[in-house]
Amino acid sequence: MNKQNSANGLALTSAYLFIMICQLMIPHYFRNGPVYLICTLIWLLGASAMIFLNRRFSFKNPVDSTEKCTQATHEAILIGLGLIATLAAQILLTTFEVNVLHQPSGSENTNMFIEIIHQYPYYFLCPVIAAPITEELVFRKFFFGNFSSVLPKLICALISSTVFSIGHSDGHFIVYAAIGLILCYVYEKSGKIRTSMIVHMLMNLTVMLINL
Fold first, then answer.
1. pLDDT one-digit tens code per residue, 193-208
2. Phi/psi of residue 70, each to 5°?
3. What's the Cα-to-Cα distance from 99 to each of 92, 113, 132, 165, rounded to whole Å?
4. Residues near 180 by Cβ (< 8 Å), separated by ≥ 6?
5. Which family does the record claim for this protein (predicted)?
6. 162: buried, middle or exposed (CB in 10 Å: 19+, 13-18, 0-12)?
């Protein structure tokens, strides 16, 4: 990797890790006061900071392209298809995990978010806005896009989706890996990280609304 690639990746992953550590540590050690308001603000500000860092340490990887999906209509269609694909993958693969692998159907991550949102509605902004931005910049932009400058895209997509799945660590490895692959495909076809961000946001929004 060249210096621009390394700087971009280091900036994004460092910021993401800082945000995640804050989300874990603050509720654990500071049980009094507006804990989840602080967590929400940190995640939203962190997402904004990561967008800034991605521009400040800009690196145009082999996936980034202004020539792909040039019309808004084409991007909208890709977003719609991506959303349908991610939701369908969740339904089909969760059914497989439950019936064949005998795993529980519920997602620990989703249940955790729902439980917090019931008490603090503003926390809804975290899974629907902040998480998709931060996760797309790390797992798709860096692990898939930037890695594609030194490795075949298929290998990078597998690495990206695997790390994405492990990062969620709630037992539904196959489901998250499939979602990761679909989001890589959306990013690849659009050439724009914003497109996979929007699909991710809409997917999380749909899941949250269904479970509320």
1. 999 999 999 999 999 9
2. -75, -25
3. 11, 25, 29, 20
4. 139, 157, 160, 161, 162, 164, 165
5. Belongs to the UPF0177 family.
6. middle
Determine the structural domain holding residue 176 and report its residue range: 3-211
Residue 22 CA to residue 30 CA, distance in Å, equals: 11
Distance from C-alpha of 75 to C-alpha of 189, rounded to nearest angstrom: 9
Alpha-helix runs per DSSP H in 30-120:
35-56, 72-99, 108-119
Residue 211, token pair as written in the block: 């479970």
Q: Tell me the pLDDT tens digit for each residue of 160-200.
A: 999 999 998 888 899 999 999 999 999 999 999 999 999 99
Q: How many residues does the chain have?
A: 212
State both tokens at 144.
């898939």
Domain count for the chain, please give it.
1
The model scores a pTM over 0.90 = yes
The span from the CA of 17 to the CA of 163, in Å, is 13
